[in-house]
Amino acid sequence: MVKHRLLYISVIFCICISGFLEAQATQTVRELTIDEAVKVALENNLGLQQSAINLNGKKRASDRSWNSLIPSISAGAVASHPTSITGSLFPAQDSWTTGFQVSASLSLSVVTIDNIKRAKADYEAGAISYEQAKQELEIQVRKLFYQIILLNANKELAALSLENTQSRYAQSASLARAGQAAHLDELSARVDMENKRPVLRNAEMAYENAIDSFKTLLGISVEQSITLAGSLVITDNISPVNGRNLNAQGDSLEASAILKSIETLEIQRSATRNSAYIPSLRLSWNSTPLYINEEWRDNSGSFSVTLSMSLDNLLPWSNTKTQIDSINDSISLAQIRLNESLRNRENKITQLLRTIDKTGETIEILTLNVELARTTYDLYVEAYRNGAMDYQRLRDAADSLLQAQNQVRQEQYNHISAILDLEKELNIPYGTLQ
After folding, report:
1. Angstrom distance (rounded) from CA 110 to CA 112
2. 408, 412, 407, 384: which is closest to 396 by C-alpha?
């Protein structure tokens, strides 16, 4: 009985320890830099994994597309016994004839080459789509990374602002109780304090929602606690970005995808035309060797060459002619989309360069505001130490300094976001222009 109790206690203890260790593992905070976050997303994102599987399937189809040039071969065994429907169903001669069957055929057509080209073009189009998915995922991770840092700063600023209003309310209430301030001042300070609470809560919710979205984007558990190792650096000098002088500009992935679709349509048009207007050649051979009277005989073997072509396709109103015309229309539409894509790209690059110049200038101006707020705060600190300034005005000066710094962070985020968009449009590695 004692042994059973000890065993029961041991099991309970192990379960508790296991739960504690699991909880500790869940609560472990994972620190991520921006490059580490991108790496984790590329490894774990489910959408990208699906794209990779589809790409592997297209590569396999492209690598094996040549197998249509391999002859079709079949073989089988034969065992026969003579019968008769006019006399005895089973003649007196009880003999079995054994042998085997072998047949082979090969179809040769120009369309076969077109199908091989189409499989290769389909794989190349899939590779472009996969690169587009990777590029889109990476820019989402990078933008959300910096946005979370900004939201965290907004949350801290909202918390400090609420703390300052609480201090002002406490001071107003104390003065009102001492008869040195009107009750209206106390009520006004309280209303101001209560109005700051939903602001802080909204800032906290925005930060928490962004963290959850970030975890989903990275493909990690929602239970995993993370912290981001990075910052929106407040700098006095913003390096100008001049995309007009970039020599490393890459081809647009969107334009490359359209070009590849045009190539695929041209291959499809060629295959349709060749199947209609060029004869196809079929080679076939079959043999059925039978073992009869202690010797092998083949009385049914044959070899044939067939050259065939559909004459209906030669008519100007045939379905083939209609299909070719439809493919030509699709090619024309794709070329229009290509021209539109290139024009939009050039226009977007110009707008992004303009935005980067504007945000850079704005950061310089806002940095001056930070310097003014910092100077004012330093003077208030000195005055407070000398007894010439009350504590509440010192807190207000600190709040103004943080707000000025946060305005720079907001504009810095806009600056970085525009640079990321420009790198995407130029199709160059992210971080090249920063």
Report:
1. 5
2. 384
The full 3-state SS of 348-367, as one line of letters, equals HHHHHHHHHHHHHHHHHHHH
- Enumerate long-range contacts of 354-360, CB under 8 Å, 24 or more apart: 355/414, 355/418, 356/240, 356/241, 356/415, 356/418, 356/419, 356/422, 357/240, 359/411, 359/412, 359/414, 359/415, 359/418, 360/238, 360/240, 360/241, 360/415
Residues 185, 172 contacting (CB under 8 angstroms): yes
Please state, in angstroms and rounded to a whole number, the distance separating the CA atoms of residues 374 and 380. 10
Whether residue 147 contacts residue 34, with contact meaning beta carbons closer than 8 Å, is answered with: no
**Distance separating alpha carbons of residues 96 and 347, to the nearest angstrom:** 84
Q: Which residue spans within 92-209 are E strands per DSSP?
A: 97-108
Q: Which residues contact 307 (CB under 8 A, 6 or more apart)?
A: 279, 280, 281, 282
Query: Does residue 338 have a pLDDT over 50?
Result: yes
Q: What is the Cβ-side half-sphere exposure of residue 217, based on CA atoms within 13 angstroms?
A: 21
Q: What is the pTM (predicted TM-score) of this model?
A: 0.76
Q: Burial of 90 by CB count in 10 Å (0-12 exposed, 13-18 middle, 19+ buried)?
A: exposed
The pLDDT of residue 73: 82
Q: Tell me what the mean pLDDT of segment 289-313 comes to.
A: 76
Mean pLDDT for the stretch of residues 218-230:
88
Q: Are 423 and 432 in contact (CB under 8 A)?
A: yes
Residue showing tokens 């980067």? 356
The H or E element containing residue 296 is strand 295-297
> In 278-318, which ranges are continuous DSSP H helix?
none
**The pairing of beta strand 29-32 with beta strand 225-228:** parallel
Domains in the chain (CATH in brackets) are 26-83+94-426 (1.20.1600.10)
